[in-house]
Design goal:
Strand 7 (162-173) and strand 8 (176-187) form a beta hairpin. The chain has 255 residues and is an alpha/beta fold. 27% of the residues lie in helices and 20% in strands. The strands form two sheets. A six-stranded mixed beta sheet has the order 1-7-8-6-4-5. Strands 2-3 form a two-stranded antiparallel sheet. The chain has a single domain, classed as Collagenase (Catalytic Domain), CATH 3.40.390.10. It has helices at 4-22, 31-36, 107-125, 193-207, 235-244, and strands at residues 40-45, 61-62, 81-82, 92-97, 129-133, 141-145, 162-173, 176-187. The chain is globular, with a radius of gyration of 22 Å. The chain has five helices and eight strands, in the order ααββββαββββαα.
């Protein structure tokens, strides 16, 4: 039978071997993102840049207008906008979310913000593929915890709690260049939880390709929200995004 000193030495060795594992990342943390969301090694503006109705270089251009919808139309595809390369969408989006800061008085606001973003991502993730990553260089959608500036790119005053900013880029990943949409989503933490989640749901709808607004207040992508915050996707939201992801697009495809 081993002596007490031998057993103690064996326990110490086991603890030393286990110590590095205790500080390692959780199993699978960003591992899936590393495999499916390669690092961007370089990027450049896509030429020619799309011109929106206001001349903005970062606004999608109007789509060719489909026939006027009937009063019972199940979606709002006719209100969406596209780009010269087609619909700014990807079959799989890699998403980076700004992590919380150091513990302090503002931590509870950051946690509330994170809860709202997680809820919005869960809603859109039920309709399409979203892969979370820990490195912004792997992402096409980057979600930042900050209030949007009062002025937009055209110098117009736009007081809001959320904004999605689209860039069309050529991005090099794993030695290959491909056209990609990149969207910076700015979400202010200075809202109550329900309002935060409704704002996140709306702006993420833009980020995944719904560049336009619904004309119904009960939809997440409503141009004018109703009296109650919309915290989940409506049937029209779902029908519209499903239609969009059946449309061809050159984004993410090799040249």
């Amino acid at each position: 039978m081993p002596s007490f000193s031998t057993i103690r030495r064996l326990v110490l060795i086991a603890l030393l071997l286990a110590a590095p594992l205790a500080n390692a990342e959780p199993a699978g943390a960003d591992r899936h993102g590393e495999q499916t969301c390669p690092m961007a090694t370089s990027s450049r503006p896509l030429r020619p840049l799309p011109q929106g109705p206001d001349g903005s270089a970062h606004s999608p251009s109007p789509a060719a207008a489909p026939a006027a919808p009937s009063p019972t139309a199940p979606d709002y595809r006719h209100l969406l906008e596209t780009t010269p390369l087609g619909w700014p969408r990807l079959d799989r989006w890699c998403v980076w979310v700004q992590p919380p800061g150091e513990p302090g008085p503002g931590l509870r606001f950051e946690q509330r913000w994170q809860q709202a973003v997680d809820g919005a991502l869960g809603s859109w993730g039920s309709e399409l593929s979203l892969v979370m990553v820990n490195d912004p260089a792997r992402a096409q959608i980057l979600i930042h915890r900050r209030r949007p500036p009062l002025l937009d790119d055209q110098g117009r005053r736009r007081a809001s709690h959320g904004r999605a900013l689209l860039e069309l880029l050529e991005v090099e990943r794993q030695g290959a260049w491909r056209p990609e949409p990149r969207v910076q989503v700015l979400l202010s933490p200075d809202q109550r939880l329900e309002a935060l989640q409704a704002t996140a749901l709306h702006e993420l709808g833009h980020a995944i390709g719904l560049w336009g607004h619904s004309d119904e207040p009960g939809d997440a992508m409503a141009a004018v929200p109703g009296a109650q915050p919309v915290l989940s996707l409506s049937a029209r939201d779902r029908a519209t995004v499903r239609w969009l992801y059946q449309q061809p697009s050159r984004f993410g495809q090799p040249p």
